[in-house]
Amino acid sequence: MASSGKPVVLVTGGSGYLGQFIVQALAKANFQVAFTYHSTAAPSFDGDVQAFWDPDTARAVNVPTKLLDALSQHATEHGSHPLFIHLSTDQVYDGSKSDWKEDEAGNAVNVYGKTKLEAEQVIQERWPNHVILRSSIIYGPQSRMPVSRALFLQFVARQLAEETPTSFFNDEFRNPVFVDDIVSVVLRLLQPGTTQPGRLYNMGGPERLSRVDMAVKICGCDKTHPR
Q1: Backbone φ and ψ of 22, nearest 5°
Q2: Which of the residues 6, 96, 125, 182 has an alpha carbon 20 to 30 A from that of 144?
Q3: What is the number of other CB atoms lying within 10 angstroms of the CB of residue 31?
Q4: Minimal CA–CA distance to 204: which of 179, 167, 186?
Q5: Would you give the end-to-end CA distance of the chain in angstroms?
Q6: Residue 138: CB partners within 8 Å, gap ≥ 6?
Q7: Of the candidates 127, 106, 141, 125, which has an alpha carbon nearest to the alpha carbon of residue 18?
Q8: At a CB cut-off of 8 Å and minimum separation 6, what does 104 contact?
Q9: Which residue has the higher pLDDT, 4 or 45?
Q10: What is the 3-state secondary structure (H, E, C) of the chain?
C-alpha cells in the first residue's frame, strides 16, 4: 500500500496502445498507478499516475527479468508476492491449426512471439502469483496519445480515407478482442479474492476472422461488392 492508502499498480509499457487504456482505467478505479514508457514523451493521464522512462528494447522489453529481480527483492523485504499480470499474445502459437488450447505448447514463428513465450516461461518459473493473458489482435478507438505503429483498425480506416488499394492476408485467422474488454479483465483480476494465481488464459473475441474478413467488416461491405 502507498502512503495515500490506494492499492499500487505498476504498468510496464504504459505508452503503448493497450497500456494507455489500462493506466487510465486503473487511475479512475482509485488505484495509484506507475507506468513505464518508451517514447520521446510520456502520455498525460488523469488521476494518481506517475511515469518512469523505460529505454530497454526488444527482449529486454518482452522478457521482464530485471523487473522480476526487483520484485523478488521487494518480496524478500516485505514478505509478500504481489500479483503479476502478464499480457502475452496468441502469436506464441505457430498457426498450424485452429482453436489452440492454453495447455498446448506454443511454437512461435516470429521474434515477437518467441520473446513473449520466453517471458511466459520466465514468469511461470520465478513468480507463482501470476496470471498470463494471451491476447489476440486488439482493436478499439484511438488512444489518448497516438502510438508509433497504427493498429489494424486505424490502418484500414486510413487506407479507406486515402482510397489506397491494399491487399490483406486471407490465411491468418485471429479472434479480435476489444480493448475495453481486456481492461475489464485486468480490473477484475485486481479485485481481492477473484484471482487464481498461476493461471494462463487465451483471451480473444467471439469471431474467428482473417485479415480480409476484418478489413471487410471495417469498410462496411461484403467480399463480392467492395468499395
Answers
A1: -65, -45
A2: 6
A3: 21
A4: 179
A5: 54
A6: 17, 18, 151, 176, 177, 178, 179, 182
A7: 141
A8: 93
A9: 45
A10: CCCCCCCEEEECCCCCHHHHHHHHHHHHCCCEEEEEECCCCCCCCCCCEEEEECCCCCHHHHCCHHHHHHHHHHHHHHCCCCCEEEEEEHHHCCCCCCCCCCCCCCCCCCHHHHHHHHHHHHHHHHCCCEEEEEECCEECCCCCCCCCCCCHHHHHHHHHHCCCCCCCCCCCEECCEEHHHHHHHHHHHCCCCCCCCCEEEEECCCCCEEHHHHHHHHHCCCCCCCC
Sign of torsion over alpha carbons 16, 21, 24, 25: negative
Q: What is the pLDDT of residues 41-86, one digit of tens each?
A: 666 777 777 765 564 454 666 788 888 888 888 788 877 788 999 9
In this prediction the pTM is 0.84
Question: Dihedral through CA 86, CA 90, CA 91, CA 94, nearest 10?
Answer: 130
pLDDT tens digits, one per residue of 127-160: 989 999 999 999 999 888 888 777 888 899 889 8
d(CA 17, CA 208): 22
Phi, psi of 180 (to 5 degrees): -65, -25
Q: From residue 18, give the alpha-carbon distance in Å to each of 37, 70, 147, 177, 178.
A: 12, 24, 10, 11, 10
C-alpha cell at 195: 484471482
**Which pLDDT does position 151 carry in this prediction?**
86
What domains are defined for the chain?
Answer: 56-141+176-206 (3.40.50.720)
